[in-house]
Design brief:
There is one protein chain. By secondary structure, this protein is of the alpha/beta class. It has two domains: about 1-35; about 70-290, Alpha-Beta Complex (2-enoyl-CoA Hydratase, Chain A, domain 1). It has eleven helices and nine strands. The chain has a seven-stranded mixed sheet with strand order 3-4-5-6-7-8-9, sandwiched between helices. A two-stranded antiparallel ribbon has the order 1-2. The longest helix has about 35 residues, at about 1-35. It is globular. It starts with a helix and ends with a helix.
Amino acid sequence: MANNEESRGLKSLLDWFANRRKSGSTILERQEREIADGLWHKCSNCGVLTYTKDLRANQMVCVECGHHNRVDSDERIRQLIDANSWRAMDEQLRPTDPLQFRDRKAYSDRLREMQDKLDLVDAVKTGLGQIDGLPIALGVMDFRFMGGSMGSVVGEKLTRLIEQATQRRYPVVIVCTSGGARMQEGMLSLMQMAKISGALQRHREERLLYIPVLTNPTTGGVTASFAMLGDIILAEPKATIGFAGRRVIEQTLREKLPEDFQSAEDLLKHGFVDDIVPRTQLKKTLAQLIALHQPPAPTTTHNMVVWETRSLSSTVAE
């Protein structure tokens, strides 16, 4: 009799554990389903769950730890450009496969998959708009499209943007995020570094402003060219910025690098970056810098005549 009671007690105890495990997994599945549905966002830095709507209102910056989550090009344009002022440029430019490149998959197939999945033509969007009423030429790279790699279309679109800004006498802002040059286009991708740099030099000769904004990550050929050619270089907090990867450098030098190596804070300390600006302050900061560097109004003949008349009158009065 006692054995029967003990067996029943053991069975009920096992049932209790089984039910608890089952209810726990159900709760976990429900939480995961809610997160997957996009209602909540778990911070990859501090692990805090944030209502996605609140996170978007804070420009995808964690309200708990200040971690800057990666944003796509459309979201970045909405954050920076005044409503109803954006005019996209060169949307018809599409990448090709001149080298017939193939690794595990044909490059043409990779392009098609990315374009269908993301509704993007390539890894950058360019256009003209306004920031607090001030005209601007803006380029925004998108890391989702093949790691934001710089191919022929990226180089051509940015070059055309800069040339249009030079013609209109607009400041240029490029939001950089990239893994570097696109290997599937070989030397053609490397040529874009010189092409964009040449356009920026002509823009500078006209005494016009260029501001690159370095976000996480900005590496490779982008860092080695237009990302570091700005009159004023801004970066987001804790962004990874560099040319070669950390592991490659450690293997080459055969020594351990500091924890903050290639971070925006480290580059600021060594003078490669002029300022680190939180995303929530970026539009305001850009507007202030652009306003301070507005070219002076051209001196007209009428203004010169008025000035000379006033000067002559004051001389006669004396």
